[in-house]
Amino acid sequence: MPRKIITEQSLPLALGLLHSWQGKLTWDLYAKKLARRLKVDRIAKRSLYKHDEIVEVYHLVQARLKEQSPAEKNTDVTVERLRKENDKLRSELEYETQKVKNLQNAILRLQRNAYMVSGLDTKKLQELLTKPLSPEID
Known about the structure:
Strand content: under 5%
Helix content: 55-70%
Number of domains: 2
Structural class: mainly alpha
């Protein structure tokens, strides 16, 4: 006999997933996502149809999603595009942060090496390092 996947303990999770659903809602998408949440291989649509509460909430959520304006809908394509853009921007930020750290280390090495040169006036070096660059150099 097949084991029962939707139990009294897992029913609130199944209903909560439906209530929080955004984007396209189909029985297949819902079954796949619920199977991942419940950590099972798959859930047949028949087993979802057997629970009146799930069917009722499914239809309510589907009606709610249809009533939303296109601007309010959070489609999977939009979410995926934003995730990709977010990943790209995080990567760029990490690169730029590493570049700044490398430049800071180079400046510290340069200062340390300049102070170690014998006969160098450290006060004049400090003035040169703190003095802003002239506009002609930019």
